[in-house]
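seq:
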Amino acid sequence: MMGPESVAGNLIKTVGSFFSRPQVRVETLPIGPGIPLGIEQVSNPAVGIGGAYGAWGIPYDNATLPQLLEERMGLPLKPEEKLNLDELGFLHRHHLPPLTDEEHVQVEVSVGARLLAAAAQACGWAMSEIEAVLIGVSIPVTEDYVERIADEAGVPDSALKVTVHKACDSSVAALNLALNPDLPANRRLSHNLAEYLRGKKVLVGGIEGLSRVLRLARDKQAAQLFGNGAGIFGLIPGRTMKFLVGGAREAYDAEGVLQVRMTYPHSRRPNEEGSLVEVSEKGEHSVRVAGMMHEPEDIASPVEMAGPMGMVKLFVRNGVEAVRGVYQSYRDLMARTNMVGRDIAVAIVHHANYKINQLKEKQLNKEGIKIPMPWLLSDFGNVSAASNMIAFLRQLSNLRPGDHILFDGFGAGTYYDVVAVELGSA
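struct:
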């Protein structure tokens, strides 16, 4: 296997990897041995939305990944422990070389700041114009991560910074907060975010440095599925993206099908209303929305997964119910507004793995809910909260003013956010 230096020097030649795409701008962050970072900017002037997405670290394909994991864990992967990753829709993951804790912070802050700046630029916005930043992140490298990346990117101090920790659902939960005034989380704040942000220039996204997390993981499934990735786009609520309907669900993972260590503030118990989600205003311009997780018993373990079938049953069963409820609300809205012939143009679904998404789509089709759910992230792996944002940006050029889009987020905890929007115009 090539080492970090040789891989970094030949990234463009890595056939099939994200870094080999002609639109991707690649640089090397001068941290540790040098960390390759690739960013692709996307914009659709017709709908007035732009953004940026990317990955950092060394791209490993399915043939080279097992050796990396064996070196990390000090144990060989048995044949029965190797996942059929091609079948699950993943061809590459991005992982980091060994770094110190401080270097991990430097890397992820640098990555986040660059993505914010690239997303604003793709929208044609100056950083001084940004009025809010909402970022979903499962296991943050530092508690004040969003504040730090916003500061480094040049976002004004007066801009609102919102951090969402709801595992893979975090970025869609952030979008739902920005658009849906009826969310319980919005009602718990001194200012309803959806009402406050209407008409403002907002950056929403997900940033997941999962290679950092997996360096401590002993779970061989998780180690093969997850990797680094981030996606951020800019919108003006009520203008370039209009809220139609949406909802959020909680269903505590009592069996621990997907266990995640909470490295962020949380009381580790439901609130007085029985909700697993805690909402806190950290300062005049900072908000945190944090979900309770079923944590691994091993205090050193960041993530543990049950068998693949347990994951399928958990996310498909609850996920279909979440989508069904919001889609019915959407159909009711279309009927009330005399737009019975309208329908969702495309669903932007969290890329847990291809089998889960395929089965979910099949179950929805049986109920008469037939929405295209394209698979778009084979060169990233499961990048948790970043996946919906990357998928949306990869679909963005195909979208037109007035299109109705369904965002479907789901993840450990378990949490489900589904929101339907109408694209506006520039």
